[in-house]
Amino acid sequence: MNNIEPTLIKKKELANRLSVSPRTIDNWVAKRIIPFIRVGPRFYLYDFEAVLAAIRKHYEVKPIVRILLLAAAAEQSEEDVHGRHGGRGGG
User: Fold this and answer.
1) Residue 30: what pLDDT?
2) According to the 3-state scheme, what is the secondary structure of the chain?
3) Residues facing 37 on adjacent strands
4) Cα separation of 77 and 33, whole Å?
5) How many CA atoms are closer than 13 Å to the CA of 1, on its beta-carbon side?
6) What are the distances in angstroms from CA 37 to CA 34, 51, 61, 78, 83?
7) Minimal CA–CA distance to 58: which of 38, 22, 34?
8) Where are the domains of the chain?
9) Sign of dihedral through CA atoms 69, 71, 76, 80?
């Protein structure tokens, strides 16, 4: 029974698991991006799975947006290769 990981973890552990700084955790809490449980005035606990789900939801890139961004980038690359002004020289 000692092998069970705790469901609730402290800020430092959460930051380590997510590979972010504790200050990033503070910012997410202040912006209400991640769920937390306030235990004391400056002490919070976090459910790792709930935090992970919230981060995935908040920072999700929609597939259609991704396709549009890739198309715009490809178009920009083509303009850069061929020149923006029909290939005319400047001088």
Assistant:
1) 95
2) CCCCCCCEECHHHHHHHHCCCHHHHHHHHHCCCCCCEEEECCEEEEEHHHHHHHHHHHCCCCHHHHHHHHHHHHHHHHHHHHCCCCCCCCC
3) 45
4) 35
5) 0
6) 10, 11, 28, 51, 55
7) 34
8) 8-82
9) positive
Give the model confidence (pLDDT) of 50-78 as tens digits.
999 999 899 875 666 667 777 788 887 77
- Using the predicted structure, report yes or no on whether residue 32 has a pLDDT greater than 90: yes
Residues 43, 17, 35, 62, Cα dihedral to 10°: 150
Q: How far apart (Å, rounded) are the C-alpha atoms in residues 48 and 63?
A: 26
Confirm if 45 and 9 have CB atoms less than 8 A apart: yes
pLDDT at 33 over 80: yes
Give the number of other Cβ atoms within 10 Å of residue 22's Cβ. Answer: 13
Query: What is 8-82's CATH number?
Result: 1.10.10
For the cut 90, the answer to whether the pLDDT of residue 8 exceeds it is: yes
